[in-house]
Design brief:
This protein is an all-alpha fold. The protein has 2 domains: 7-90, RNA polymerase sigma factor, region 2, helix turn helix motif (Rna Polymerase Sigma Factor, Chain: A), CATH 1.10.1740.10; 100-193, Winged helix-like DNA-binding domain superfamily/Winged helix DNA-binding domain (Arc Repressor Mutant, subunit A), CATH 1.10.10.10. Helix content is 74%, strand content 0%. Residues 94-103 and 108-121 have low confidence and may be disordered. One of its GO terms (molecular function) is sigma factor activity. Pfam families: Sigma70_r2 (PF04542), Sigma70_r4_2 (PF08281). Keywords: DNA-binding, Sigma factor, Transcription, Transcription regulation. Residues 25-91 form the RNA polymerase sigma-70 region domain.
């Protein structure tokens, strides 16, 4: 899965003056960071700006990384705080997915999209669209476990809960994701299992 020097080796060398090696960490984690950022904003330009900002902040704070968890766990914290700060500055409205109006909007957008694109969607696209219909907390824990490949212990550290609580939250988020997929992406789900 991971080739070349491990993250901690690269970090130690960067801190000892070999700053150019930081590019290896950026390359290794750019998709990870971008995927998480897209959970907060669907605007690609904003996402690119935020991702770049994340790597600048991580570089400046690299001496604070103690190696008690994976680098990706530490980086995730920087990603989420940077995203939240960015959205607050932009004053982007945050909608509750509990309101009927948001569901109607999602239904209308998705039904038109499905009519034209059913055959072209990949499993990943469908899952990502379904994740956008979840609460930020549910989308975050699913992203951490499946896309960022964090353990329940690491997810617990990130969320400030014990691993068993993280496991329960993950289970509930998976149930809600399944419900969203069955409701909004019925045809795509049939294609995936069929």
């Amino acid at each position: 899965m991971q080739t070349g020097p491990v993250d901690n080796e690269i970090i130690n060398k960067v801190l000892q003056g070999e700053q150019a090696l930081y590019a290896q960490l950026v390359k290794r984690y750019q998709n990870y960071v971008f995927t998480i950022v897209l959970r907060y904003t669907t605007n690609r330009e904003d996402a690119e700006e935020i991702a770049q900002d994340v790597f600048v902040k991580a570089y400046r704070s690299l001496a604070d990384f103690r190696g008690e968890s994976k680098f990706s766990t530490w980086l995730y914290t920087i990603v989420t705080t940077t995203c939240i700060t960015f959205l607050r500055k932009k004053k982007v409205p945050v909608h509750s997915l509990d309101t009927e109006q948001v569901f109607e909007l999602a239904d209308n957008q998705n039904s038109a999209f499905r009519a034209n694109q059913v055959e072209q969607k990949s499993k990943i696209q469908v899952i990502n669209e379904a994740l956008r219909l979840l609460s930020i907390d549910d989308a975050r824990i699913i992203t951490l476990f499946y896309q960022a490949e964090q353990s329940l212990e690491e997810i617990g550290r990130i969320l400030g809960v014990d691993p068993n609580t993280a496991k329960v939250k993950l289970h509930r988020a998976r149930v809600r994701l399944k419900e969203k997929m069955e409701k909004h992406f019925t045809e795509e789900v049939k294609d995936m299992v069929g």
